[in-house]
Amino acid sequence: MSQVTPDRLPSFHIMAKPIGPICNLDCKYCFYLEKENLYPGESNWAMGAETLESYIRQYIEAQDVPAISFAWQGGEPTLLGVDFFRKVVELEKKYANGKCIENAFQTNGVLLDDDWCEFLAKNKFLIGLSIDGPREFHDHYRVDKGGGATFGRVMRGARYLKKHQVEFNTLTVVQRHNSYYPLQVYRFLKEIGSGFMQFIPIVERIAEKPNREGLVLISPGSEERARVSEWSVEADQYGRFLCAIFDEWVRKDVGRYYVQIFDVALASWSGMDQSLCVFRETCGSALAIEHNGDLYSCDHFVYPENKLGNILENPLESMVNSVQQRKFGQDKHDTLPRYCRQCDVRFACNGECPKHRFIRTPDGEEGLNYLCAGYKIFFHHIDSHMRFMAEELRQRRPPANVMAWARLRDLRAQGKRRPGRNDLCICGSGKKYKRCCGRS
Questions:
Q1: Are 302 and 34 in contact (CB under 8 A)?
Q2: Over pLDDT 90: what percentage of the chain?
Q3: 126-130 and 100-107: which strand pairing?
Q4: Structure confidence by residue, pLDDT tens digits, 102-158
Q5: Residue 112 half-sphere exposure toward CB, CA atoms < 13 A
Q6: Average of per-residue pLDDT across 405-420
Q7: Taking the mean position of all CA atoms in its chain, how far away is CA 46?
Q8: Any idea which residues carry the catalytic annotation?
Q9: How far apart are CA 329 and CA 33, in angstroms?
Q10: pLDDT at 422 over 90
Q11: Percentage of the chain with pLDDT > 70?
């Protein structure tokens, strides 16, 4: 095993695209479908046997950690069939060398059935199920190749997951339409049994004309004339979307439902490293591999200028630790505008994802994040609650105590007194206050 040095990452993450950008849906906001243009003339999009084995072997060998996490995405990975992933598991066991192997699998859910879910359950795959809320919000952009609705088929897939007790998270794209209905989206996700939620803002710029590779959704560094797409979430509205869900969660659902951005924020307020790459000071440890073995700096930077090489021609470890990739990761910190460096919530945001840094600061400096205004709204809104939860953690008390604290603050704001020990609890449980929220 290679020795860990300051110039070598002991661990990293790769989003594998074993079927490239090929998908059975035609979601109007998808940024990856057009990546077909990077491989003109390609007819076989399935990752070949040699590439698959080389990737699994190198990915395990290159990391000095006891647990290796594989992530499979697309396009739509279920198009490859269950047997492809049976081979994946077989190869992981072959090269595990005593390490624990974990698998995450992102899907639109349309093709899930008993056969798929029996396999996923048996091999303990963690599923990320893409769903944008109730039918009217989901079907607004997430359509099939004929432009038809997909909600019913996705919900059928969710029922298969629950039938076979497959662990799953929900991945909800926050777009221009559903961003105006935060509580409807949040409550729906709870109703369908999602205990872990990710809310992913979609922001894309459309060039006036395709570049030489045929790509229309351009990178932030592109000098082409472009406009923000009509499906992109508005910055302020994204902040309000998160605030509305947080206000309900912090009073009712802490410890019962988990929202990724809330967990990451609590880590920031507790002085811990963020687990989500977009909020770290630097990046570069989350890459993407295409169906043919091409390695790119990031899932959101699959552009020719961000290609690091191919695993059949260059060792994976050398590309991950290359000067090019190191610079890509460090640039996130080094190109942060002064406006961001002086911001009071920089510790929680760090300029977010470089992909979204294409507007100017109020004083005219380039490189401000398009979502900046929304994040300021959100991080300032949650500050007092996060301070409380962080202190509870430091005192080795459950952060869920914030729910009773928030309800008492609400009472004081309404000019009402604190409940007596024998009064009914303010949470509506029907119990006496002393036997419910009063215990904390």
A1: no
A2: 87
A3: parallel
A4: 999 999 999 999 999 999 999 999 999 999 999 999 999 999 999 999 999 999 999
A5: 30
A6: 82
A7: 24
A8: 299
A9: 25
A10: no
A11: 95
Give the H/E segment covering residue 122.
helix 114-122
Distance CA 218, CA 329 (A): 19
Tokens found for residue 72: 């499979």
- Give the type of residue at 309: G
Sequence-distant (6+) residues with CB within 8 A of 283 are 277, 298, 328, 329, 332, 354
- Which residues, other chains included, contact 234 with Cβ-Cβ below 8 Å and sequence gap of 6+? 176, 179, 374
CB crowding 351-370: b at 16 or more within 10 Å, else e? bbbbbbbbbeeeeeeebbbb
Identify the bridge partners of residue 104 per DSSP, sorted by sequence position.
71, 126
Describe the crossing of helices 372-381 and 383-394 by its angle, rounded to 10 degrees. 60
Inform me whether the pLDDT recorded for 223 exceeds 90: no
Asked whether the CA dihedral 359, 383, 418, 437 is positive or negative, the reply is: positive
Q: Is the model's pLDDT at 3 over the cut of 50? A: no
Q: Tokens 């802490």: give the residue.
A: 254
Residue for token pair 């090019």: 324
**Phi, psi at residue 333, to the nearest 5°?**
-80, -45
Longest distance between any two alpha carbons in the chain, whole Å: 74
Report how far apart, in Å, the C-alpha atoms of 400 and of each of 186, 250, 255, 366 are: 19, 8, 6, 40
- Six-digit token pair at 327? 């610079």
Q: Determine contact, residues 240/212, Cβ cutoff 8 Å.
A: no
Strand partners, 201: 174
Q: How many CB atoms lie within 10 A of CB 93?
A: 10
pLDDT band for position 5 (cuts 50, 70, 90) = very low
Q: Is the Cα torsion angle 235, 236, 241, 247 positive or negative in sign?
A: positive
Q: Is the peptide bond before 75 cis (omega within 30 degrees of 0)?
A: yes
Contact 352, 279 (CB under 8 A): yes
* pLDDT per residue as tens digits for the range 330-377: 999 999 999 999 999 999 999 999 999 999 999 999 999 999 999 999
pLDDT at 426 (0 to 100): 63
Which residues does residue 128 pair with via DSSP β-bridges, in sequence order?
106, 169
Residue 84: closest CA among 15, 170, 173, 16: 16
pTM above 0.90, yes or no: yes
Which residue in 402, 406, 437 sits closest to 419, CA to CA?
437
389 vs 110, 271, 275, CA distance in Å? Answer: 39, 12, 18
